Amino acid sequence: MKDVLVTTDMPSTSGSRILEGYMSPFDATVVARSRAAGLVPLGKTNMDEFAMGSSTEFSAYGPTRNPWDLERIPGGSGGGSAAAVAAFEAPLALGSDTGGSIRQPAHVTGTVGIKPTYGGVSRYGAIALASSLDQVGPVTRTVLDAGLLHDVIGGHDPKDSTSLAKEWPSFADAARVGASGRVLEGLRVGVIKELPDSGFQDGVATSFRASLALMQAQGAEIVEISAPHFEYGVAAYYLILPAEASSNLAKFDSVRFGLRVTPDGNPTVEDVMSATREVGFGPEVKRRIILGTYALSAGYYDAYYGSAQKVRTLIQRDFDAAFAQVDVIATPSAPTTAFRIGEKIDDPLQMYLNDLTTIPANLAGVPGISIPSGLAAEDGPPVGIQFLAPAHEDARLYRVGAALEAVLVDSWGEPLLARAPQLLGGTR
Amino acid sequence: MATAKLMDFDKALEMFEPVLGFEVHVELNTRTKMFSDAPNPANDEFHGAEPNTLIAPVDLGLPGSLPVINATAVRSSISLGLALGCSIAESSRFARKNYFYPDLGKNYQISQYDEPIAFEGSVEVELEDGTLVTIPVERAHMEEDAGKLTHMGGATGRIQGSEYSLVDYNRAGVPLVEIVTKPIFGAEHRAPEYAKAYIAAIRDIVRGLGISEARLERGNLRCDANVSLRPRGQEKLGTRTETKNVNSMRSVERAVRYEIQRQAAILADGGTIIQETRHWHEDTGTTSPGRPKSDADDYRYFPEPDLLPVQPSRELVDELRAALPEQPVARRRRLKAEWGFTDLEFQDVRNGGLIDEVEATIAAGAAPASARKWWTGEITRIANAQERDAAGLVAPADVAALQALVDAGTLTDKLARQVLEGVIAGEGSPQEVVDSRGLAVVSDDGALIAAIDDAFAAQPDVLAKIKDGKVQAAGAVIGAVMKAMKGQADAARVRELILERAAG
Prior knowledge:
The structure holds two protein chains of two kinds. By secondary structure, chain A is an alpha+beta fold. Chain A contains 13 helices and eight strands. Chain A has helices at about 30-35, 80-85, 105-110, 145-155, 170-180, 200-215, 235-250, 270-280, 285-295, 300-325, 350-355, 360-365, 395-410, and strands at about 90-95, 110-115, 135-140, 190, 220-225, 330, 370-375, 380-390. An eight-stranded mixed sheet of chain A has the order 1-3-2-7-8-6-4-5, with helices on both faces. Chain A starts with about 30 loop residues before the first helix and ends in a 16-residue tail after the last helix. Chain B has three domains: about 10-145 and about 170-295, no CATH class; about 335-435, no CATH class; about 445-504, Arc Repressor Mutant, subunit A (Orthogonal Bundle). The longest helix of chain B has 20 residues, at about 250-270.
């Protein structure tokens, strides 16, 4: 369970010192549903503080390492969940995806990650980062496992007003259909022409093209589509997310729960709040709170938050236009393989660009899946391919993902994870 | 606190034109809160609960908690909007108002900002002499209340000088509707009266709808009064102050009067009014500056992403419109006829804000005339002496019970007034006060006859006079007997007995 999910029997910290030891009086809906289905929570997994990051280096409790190469990051913010699944420490994990925090870790660890349609899975009990972008989803080793877990955690929850009151098909069934049927035949797969080749590491781009070729060989039609506003996605995202986060994180003030730092002398409540937040929040969290506070300020609101919301609408329209032409959109799940721990920690902009291909799905509320597509020839780590589908069409992702997964595993002769180095203490 | 210089009210009105505006917060009496399933302390059933016992994760802003809109609160808000003659928005939205304060669990308040549920209406308000005026309403929007801070260890109970503060989150999340008027012109000398009449009108409307307990002394209705002055002949509005914490109709009237006099004195001296929040002090009848307020206050409003827009169906709005109760003005006309009151009698009741009390007292069994006499007479007298509102001072059922004791001959009017004081002092029901204070009329003729015989013995000439037919001489004996009985005797019965004894 990613530590962003509150649990009654284990501390819930969201990777932050400000919540060290915090015990929730209630379980997140996805946790409660998992328990009710007989799943046993093995523990909480590490994450970037308040899910802000792409490497799990920004956890107050230390970094998580990539099971494929311990010098490399496991992705983020949900690096802990992906690493636990890739290292066979847990068969299934839950993550949360605000801009790619499930899919990008899946990409760098050779695992499967799904960001469901916004509203498909309850956010109740998921410590909010950006409420309009956050979505809880499964992190697993196979598409079928993800479907099985999604079936357990998904569906309407009256405790989350943004959860969709809708009957969902079985995603496990969709995965089974995909693995056994002729799903790829006649499938129209969109490839975004505006995504620059130059932005992608060779191994990532090569693996992506190889996957497309395999799909084509199975009868899929590759269609070039235009999504002219995707390039503004990262910029819009880094206004909307900090704005909502600055408000969501205001509750961490020491008054009712969590860390309390009392300065010497005769401090006022504001002094205590300020000292607590100074000590309790890490640098990335502070950076985004300041960005968000600024973006929402009078006089700047229209230029920043307002403009970002317009971009969001334009990206939604890009998706609408694209899905009129194609059944799914395919992209590499991230521009590079897992980078080395410490490599980008002082370069927030490079870190932010890691989410280039995952962010548009969150901005538009559409579902996305990342499945392993191979290893990067030049440096060895795994890479993934992402599929996006129209909102509410999560089942399509399970069909397509399971179909390509079957073809790929067939071509490798074994699951990709079988090629991961044996970890001390790991069991297969 | 320095005493502010005040200008004579009439002189202030000669020089300046007052412009008013009101923001009234109505606490809805739904069973649960605006965004959580915790019981609502603004509902009678949960009023007065121990601190921090009516709370859910949302009210404390616990990590992972999410708000869910209370559908009943939305219905109540729509009904109120309709009763205020407002248009109901086909789509309205909640927004976050961000500011750090320890009584605010999330450090933002969920309110409505640029898309309120109801807008553009008006309220018919009846002044003391029956004049009807129309107060324009700009909007009515839904929001949640904050918790309550109690500042400890200081001399004043205010935050300044206190050592620490206690927070009670029971009130956090109580559903509120804030009704905002447009600027009100033309009130002139009657500005204070307008204020009082407006609050009374809002109270009557929400009571009629049954959507709030509407008890000002509990804060179910809270009024912020905006007052500005502009020199006669000037077009541009003056700088306004917003007086908060005005929780009785009497106070709102006084606060408006005070602000007019205070601002006039400053302006006449060439000073400027600071745009600020001011606090009303019931004890001194003055206002004092709170925090400065300017249009630059930055609450960083943005649409609440945890909630969907509120989009009531046309059918729901039509249904609520059809279910609106009688408008207060029409209701008053009907009650006056039913009770058979004269114009003056009814005005007494209405101006005292006592229509509901009288109606409830009659419903509890009292005759209309008796109910009116109690409320506009003795209860109002005690309320004035205590500087409180008569409404709410005593339960209507207790007043009816008191009158029943008078009707049954258990109490004289004079004893009944003593019993009323006991009831108001919290000594229990009328019967309990009668029992505990031993106030019932002495109906034992034996005790009365003994006292009469004692009086005759003390004044032998009186007996002779009565026997001579000078009946008025009995008065002296009645006085003596009443004194001996400590007033707890029925004077008419004593007189009967005296005449019997004299004849015998």
